[in-house]
Design a protein that fits this description.
139 residues, Hypothetical Protein Ychn, Chain: A
């Protein structure tokens, strides 16, 4: 009986250790910086604020982050004028070397041919962001 209990205990311990290892768990896990592409296609103040906050957090972790504004997301230019929190986050992102690209077609459809927060860009830039980023997240 003791032998069966001992074998069962060892087996369960090894099984649990295997599951833990497969989930990426280690005692001293460190992460390497990565490249993150963030696509913002919303003009919702809270959504945009959280997206840029996440971009700033990621940059502070050492990651390379590029933001692409698409659709309603190109309205970030107007949001930084009307919302202090978004302006602070966008300024911090740009000051830390972050890049914000804006869909040229979307900007032109909103009569914004001279954006202040983002760089006038194209679908090719969005394509490059997706291809070069290890992680792409949308807001």
């Amino acid at each position: 009986m003791k032998k069966t209990f001992l074998i069962l205990t060892i087996s369960l311990s090894l099984f649990a250790l295997n599951i833990y290892a497969q989930c990426g768990g280690t005692a001293t896990k460190t992460t390497n910086p990565t490249s993150i592409g963030i696509v913002i296609y919303s003009n919702d103040i809270e959504t945009v604020w959280n997206a840029i906050r996440f971009a700033n957090f990621s940059k502070n972790q050492g990651d390379t982050v590029v933001i692409f504004l698409l659709g309603k997301g190109v309205e970030l230019d107007n949001l930084v004028k009307s919302d202090k929190n978004i302006k602070e986050q966008a300024d911090a992102f740009l000051e830390s070397g972050g890049i914000i690209l804006g869909c040229g077609t979307c900007l032109q459809s909103r009569n914004n041919n001279d954006p202040k927060v983002c760089k006038l860009s194209s679908m090719k830039d969005l394509y490059d962001l997706v291809r070069k980023s290890k992680i792409v997240i949308t807001f």
